[in-house]
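## retry 2 of 3
previous attempt timed out at serialization; input unchanged, resubmitting
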Amino acid sequence: MGFTNLLQLAGEFAISDINNKNEDIRHFFLGAVALRADGVIVKARNGSSVLPCPHAHAEARVCRKAGRNSIIFVARIRRDNGEFGMARPCKNCKNKMIRYGIKKCYYTVSSNEYGVISFENRNECVREKNIYKGKSNANKECK
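## retry succeeded, writing output
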C-alpha cells in the first residue's frame, strides 16, 4: 500500500463514524494512520473538545498505538468542501513523535501537495502530488 493510499485512508477515517456531525462545530476533521514496524496499521482521529487540547490530536493519539520505527500519515478534511487541507503536526505532536521513536510523518498540505517530516535526519520537505490520483509532479520523493 503506497503512502498516498495511506493518506487517503487517514482522511476517510477522519470523517468516518462521527456522531452528530451537525452538532460538531469544527470546520475540519483530522485523522492519523500509522504503519507500524510489524506491518500493522493503526488509526486515530482528533478528539472533539471545546478547548484546544494537544492530547486530543490524532497524531498524539496514534503515537500511543504505533511504537518505534513507525511511519505516520496525517490528513485534514475540510468540512466546507471535503478536500484535503493543511495537516502539518504541531510542535507538541512532533515532539511526541520524536519521543515515541517515529521514523517519518507524511501529512496533507492540499489535495495536490503533501509534506514529509523525517525524524531520522531532522529533515522536512513539501512535494506536489495529486493525492487522489497518486500522480507526482515532483522530480524526486522526499527522503
